Write a sequence for this structure.
């Protein structure tokens, strides 16, 4: 049985595209069964639809505070939509919301994310900018298991990326993304290959 992957997205979907391209080329040892989003009409959903992958949306176009009743209700609805796809693995690929307790309770140990820095350095939404501001000469890409914190989960793999003289946020981020896409495809493949032996989180 194919290792079932659900990808969650909020934006343009370049990380998703790397997975879709690998799948189309027969280089993904898993099957992307659905792509879900909180943002109706985002480019990533169109990428999935162009590739013939099912999509779903549970809209949250304005920020709901974590812990609020409205946010908890959204997390529960989103978790139900994901659960309907029977995922072995959930990949956050540019998904810009912190998942709440109802979601994480249901899917703990099955959610991975990418981050454009060598965690625990430069967590949060502005990692590339923060690395440049700090004068770092090296940053990188991390893939990790998602927990209840902000970029605090157990690391799966990391790879450094040098900061070049004259880099700005855009040029550095684009170079990190090249590494990030390759690492994400390799990580999904490794998890898929290990899954039949038992625990899919054993990487």
């Amino acid at each position: 049985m194919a290792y079932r992957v659900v990808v969650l997205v909020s934006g343009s979907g370049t990380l998703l595209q790397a997975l879709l391209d690998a799948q189309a080329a027969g280089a993904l040892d898993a099957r992307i069964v659905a792509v879900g989003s909180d943002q109706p009409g985002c480019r990533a959903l169109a990428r999935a639809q162009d590739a013939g992958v099912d999509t779903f949306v549970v809209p949250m176009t304005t920020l709901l505070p974590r812990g609020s009743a409205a946010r908890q209700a959204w997390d529960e609805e989103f978790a139900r939509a994901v659960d309907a796809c029977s995922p072995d693995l959930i990949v956050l690929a540019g998904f810009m919301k912190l998942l709440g307790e109802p979601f994480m309770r249901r899917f703990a140990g099955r959610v991975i994310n990418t981050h454009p820095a060598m965690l625990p350095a430069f967590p949060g939404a502005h990692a590339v900018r923060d690395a440049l501001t700090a004068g770092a000469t090296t940053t990188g890409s991390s893939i990790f298991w998602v927990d209840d914190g902000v970029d605090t989960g157990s690391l799966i793999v990391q790879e450094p990326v040098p900061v070049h003289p004259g880099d700005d946020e855009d040029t550095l981020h684009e170079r990190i993304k090249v590494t990030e896409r390759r690492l994400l495809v390799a990580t999904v493949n490794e998890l898929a290959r290990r899954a039949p032996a038992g625990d899919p989180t054993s990487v």
Notes: The helical segments are 14-24, 43-50, 69-83, 101-107, 127-133, 169-194.
